[in-house]
Amino acid sequence: MAEVAKREPTTAAVNAGEAAALAPLVDIFETGDGITVQAEMPGVSKDRLNVQADRNGLLLEGDIVIDMPQGIEAVYADVRATRYRRSFNLSGELDTDRIEATLKDGVLTVHIPKRAEFTPRKIEVRVD
Are 108 and 38 in contact (CB under 8 A)? Predict the structure, then answer.
C-alpha cells in the first residue's frame, strides 16, 4: 500500500519569519495504479499555485486572491492568512516523475502513479 504522510500539523503556523499559512483540507484516495490527493484551495488561481514533488515529498502552496471593490476593506475576517501550504512525505513506491495535477473550482487534484514495479499486473497463463 502506498503511503502519504503529513509533514506538518494542520494548524496555520509555519516557520518563524514566514507569513502564516492555512493548511488546505485534503482527501487522499488510493487505487491499484497510484494515489490521488484532492486539496481544497478556494481563491487560488493556476498562476498563483505551486506544486512541487521529489522522491520523498509533495508540497502544495497557493496564494489566495480575494477581489474586493476599490475603497472597501473587511471590518471582520475569520481568515486572515492569504496563503495555503501543506506538505506530505511520499512512499518510495510512487513515481513522482509522472505526476499530473489539475485545478478546477478551487479543488487541486494531484495524481501520483505507482512505479511500474509496484503496479499489479495480470499474468497470462498458457495451456500446453
Answer: yes
Q: Which CATH architecture has domain 2-115?
A: Sandwich (2.60)
Report how far residue 68's alpha carbon sits from residue 88's, in angstroms, rounded to the nearest whole number: 33
Domain ranges (residues) in the chain: 2-115
Q: What's the chain's Rg over C-alpha atoms? A: 19
pTM: 0.74
Bridge pairing between strands 100-104 and 107-113: antiparallel
Q: Provide mean pLDDT across the span 61-83.
A: 80
Per-residue confidence band for 3, with pLDDT thresholds at 50, 70 and 90: low
| Whole-angstrom distance, CA of residue 55 vs CA of residue 24 | 22
